[in-house]
Design goal:
Helices cover 40% and strands 19% of the residues. It contains eleven helices and 15 strands. It has helices at 14-25, 42-51, 65-74, 89-94, 96-116, 150-172, 208-216, 244-258, 281-292, 316-322, 330-343, and strands at 5-9, 29-34, 56-59, 77-82, 121-127, 138-139, 179-185, 187-189, 223-226, 238-239, 241-243, 267-273, 279-280, 298-301, 310-313. The structure holds nicotinamide-adenine-dinucleotide (NAD) and uridine-5'-diphosphate-4-deoxy-4-fluoro-alpha-D-galactose (UFG). Uridine-5'-diphosphate-4-deoxy-4-fluoro-alpha-D-galactose binds at residues 87, 89, 127-129, 185-187, 206-208, 211, 223-226, 237, 239, 281, 304, 307. Uridine-5'-diphosphate-4-deoxy-4-fluoro-alpha-D-galactose is lined by residues 87, 89, 127-129, 185-187, 206-208, 211, 223-226, 237, 239, 281, 304, 307.
């Protein structure tokens, strides 16, 4: 027998499409809403091919309240995984209004539509970028928040809105309270092991891993390593890379917990999704070359504005409360990225 129906916003995108696979494989019914502003419907066809199951796709914008209401009316949705949003830090500095409109206003409309449909379980894609400056580079959920660019601030604002929404339940004595998980991702990379779905960035990638793999396959000439004078063990930036399949498994665990007695009286809680271990840019290049046997040509370039030296997760809370921890190592992440890249050198064309 099929489990409940989950609405996946942004389900055609990189992380959302992997979440659809995991949900379908766990026997959930899946309904996707995506405006295809940063994705192609081919990703969803491939999700169906991989799982041999079908999903319901609505091409719509989450800011379109009528469209959302119609979806909630037609489908028996019990929970939402909310991935839809814009995510490029640099672009957000140039187009702050677009980012706040898409991410913050989009989430407001979604929350209103959910409220009207009495669907109050929400798993939200937050980001480690919501953390402010701190004494330690291993971030725990109770560290001070304070994003430094419009993208990060949009995630921070959404977190605040969702915390307020949940807090209002006790003020109004809500019958069915909100149950919300704010999942703070560190650096998702990798792809489904089939190599059929993966990250398909528009134009020149901003992020390290797609850039490295496009250099390795010959699409881009040379990687710029942004800074080698950071106070890290080799001078280059250190991040907590996490396999996208591990990441989406964390979403299913979060959903289970929202539906358990732990959340019986509702709540809004943040969890880090990371491995707890950091790798430098040079370590990524070296491991990439070892795993794939390809050379990654690079040069040392100036630091990129806004980059931290080092940042990785303290993933203990997710382990303790969600029963989740990342299983895949850096070799797996790179092998799966490369498999996707080789099978789809031009992405989803
Ligand atoms: P993505 O761009 O591949 O996926 C986002 C999807 O949302 C796309 O398919 C896009 O078409 C859709 N979308 C955007 N605005 C929409 C709107 N208004 N209405 C309907 N659909 C809309 O990005 P991703 O990497 O899969 O990221 C998913 C979520 O995770 C985002 O919210 C992102 O901010 C967050 N996140 C990503 C990373 C990362 O490194 N990839 C890190 C932290 C957090
Ligand atoms: N880097 C390079 N060269 C590149 C790209 C990146 O040296 O061409 C370096 C960066 O300086 C950094 C590391 O590689 O040290 C990782 O950079 P990414 O751009 O891949 O990732 P970030 O940690 O900067 O940002 C990512 C997401 C953000 C999110 C943040 C925290 O892109 O959306 O993680 O979760 F906010």
């Amino acid at each position: 027998m099929s489990k409940q129906t989950v609405l996946v916003t942004g389900g055609a995108g990189y992380i959302g499409s992997h979440a659809c696979i995991e949900l379908l494989e766990a026997e959930y019914q899946v309904v996707v809403v995506d405006n295809l502003s940063n994705s192609k419907p081919e990703s969803l066809r491939r999700v169906e091919r991989i799982t041999d199951k079908s999903l319901q796709f609505y091409e719509a914008d989450i800011r379109d309240k009528q469209a959302l209401a119609a979806i909630f009316n037609r489908e028996s949705i019990t929970a939402v995984m909310h991935f839809a949003g814009l995510k490029a830090v640099g672009e957000s500095c140039a187009q702050p209004l677009n980012y706040y409109h898409n991410n913050v206003y989009g989430t407001l409309v979604l929350a209103e539509a959910m409220s009207e449909a009495n669907v109050k379980q929400l798993v939200f894609s937050s980001s480690a970028t919501v953390y402010g400056e701190s004494a330690s580079v291993q971030y725990a959920e109770d560290f001070p928040l304070g994003a430094i660019n419009p993208y990060g601030r949009s995630k921070f604002m959404i977190e605040e809105i969702l915390r307020d929404l949940s807090a209002a339940d006790s003020v109004i004595g809500a019958q069915s309270p909100w149950k919300i998980a704010l999942l703070r991702y560190f650096n998702p990379i990798g792809a489904h092991e089939s190599g059929l779905i993966g990250e398909d960035p528009n134009g020149i990638p901003n992020n390290l891993m797609p850039y490295v793999s496009q250099v390795a396959i010959g699409k881009l000439e040379q990687l710029s390593v942004f800074g080698d004078d950071y106070p890290t063990h080799d001078g280059t930036g250190v991040r907590d890379y996490i396999h996208v399949v591990d990441l989406v498994k964390g979403h299913l665990k979060a959903l289970d917990v929202l539906q358990s007695e732990k959340f019986e009286s509702g709540g809004c809680k943040a969890y880090n999704l990371g491995t707890g271990r950091g790798y430098s840019v040079l370590e990524i290049i070296k491991t990439f070359e070892t795993v794939t046997g390809r050379k990654v040509d690079y040069k040392i370039a100036p630091r990129r504005a806004g980059d931290l030296a080092e940042c990785f997760a303290n993933p203990e809370l997710a382990y303790k409360e969600l029963g989740w921890k990342a299983e895949k190592n850096l070799d797996d992440m790179i092998a799966d990225t490369w498999n996707w890249q080789c099978q789809n050198p031009q992405g989803y064309v």
